[in-house]
Amino acid sequence: MNQIKQALERLKKEAYKKYKTEDKPTKKESIFYFGRCVSYSLKLILKEKEIITFALLQLICIGLGYYLWVQMLDWIPEEVWESTKNSDSGSPADLILLVWSFICVGITAYPLGLLTACMGAAHFLHEKGEESTIAKCFRIVLPKAWSIWTFSWIDGWWTVNRILERLPKKEDKVPVSQKLLDESIYQAWKIASLGFLPALIIGRGVMDSCKDSLGVLKTHFKAICQLRIAYSVICWFFGVGSYVGCIFMAPYIVSHMSTDNDMYIFYMLAGIPMLIALFFIQVFFRPIYILSACRIYSLYVRENNIPVTLPNVSKFSSTLIAFIVLLLIVGTVFLYRDILGITQLLSIPYK
Known about the structure:
Number of helices: 14
Mean pLDDT: 84
Largest sheet: none
């Protein structure tokens, strides 16, 4: 796992150098490019309908992951939240909530990464003229489950943090220049990593996948930039829509708040417009994004005579054991939080 993290870190650094020096396409031409991608993706989705199944399962995973994360907010008493208003220091709740958030992202990243890879597997099976099924897609991606999970966990954690950093804040002390830099690094990573999962799917190792991903960045920079920019604009559009939805729901949310735990109730109800926005992104646009990325990588593969090896054997993945162990740990914390002393630590107010 450490090897994967180091390889991905090098990929991020190299990608930012390339992204910073190259001219990037406009949003308008990127949207038009995304529109051209719809035709191929839609034909494949209509033929291989399990792709929509994968997309719907991803939506369910995100919803369950969010619900799991929100549960800890209910364990923190209202007086602790109130104590943050006049606090100059932290509380044990900060660290516990941070660890809980990281684990929730990891739990969600496991099925999410595999389902994303399964979409890519459907594309490569179609290219080889083979029938795509749910079972066959999973048999292709499971041998790379550790790499896929690590990549998805790192990517998911970074994405969650970027979303939180973009939200409006009352006392935002971060300079605009720093925000722009952080956003540029993040987008550079997203563009550079578009070739990583497709490379893993066709049997490439972690190092070769990073090399291929950089190769795609160098030889097809405009195409992957257009794809990422267009998808980012779409996500921004629905993200703003979700935020506006929260504003319109504010009277309803306030009316359901109590003195017990307003923060928990707010995040539970605010999750409704968020999941509605995610429904449109995950079901209608993300499959197009993933399939188009795989199509660009396929072009790179043909140009460089890279062998495509799609395993089609049943293989038990040790990641499933790790995933189950993680679920058991979370379940133990959930059920025995009082005995473990977690509830007491979460009740310590900010000073």
